[in-house]
Amino acid sequence: xxxxxxxxxxxxxxxxxxxxxxxxxxVLSERDGGGTHSGFGKYAYxxxxxxxxxxxxxxxxxxxxxxHEIVGYGKPIYAVTDGVVKQVVDDKEDQxxxxxxxxxxxxxxQMEGGIEVxxxxxxxxxxxxKVGDQVKKGMHLANVGNTGYSLGVHLHFGITLGTATIPFxxxxxxxxxxxxxxxxxTIEPLKVGDIIFNP
Length: 199
Known about the structure:
Blueprint: H1 2-7, E1 14-17, E2 23-29, E3 45-49, E4 76-78, E5 83-89, E6 106-110, E7 116-120, E8 134-135, E9 140-143, E10 155-161, E11 164-165, E12 168-170, E13 173-176, E14 183-186, E15 195-198
């Protein structure tokens, strides 16, 4: 990816991207964080809602038996930009926790210039749009699930041009930084464990 970026210095860098989830949200995987967040996928994030008071991901304390006990399961995913729906997959079943599958439910919205916003691992039968629909920023697109190559409930969010993710910054967010314990309003890249407050 580093060589690709050096050879393509004019690739877009987006700013002021609205956050795709509402409520209290934790960063599960950060950009350039390894696995599916490396190489051409380096600028993607994984997010999931947590309890607003305890910041726990589970309704039942430290353990859970089904995905329905996860606070973030079924939470709405919102469009971060205007565009046209390019792809919808909505019929794949959720995976059991800690068991990765291969086929995920997705919504992909294409912006101007061929840039695509990818919302992945969505809850089965939750898509609110179909291919060809015009999307407005803030529209409810689908719900958070656990489909495809996913070990736990979350939204995999990335913006791509061609086969590679592109750098982007969210609009200012109120964030409790895990590393420092300090709450701040920031546009800086998010890190694993950061808590986002997005009413």
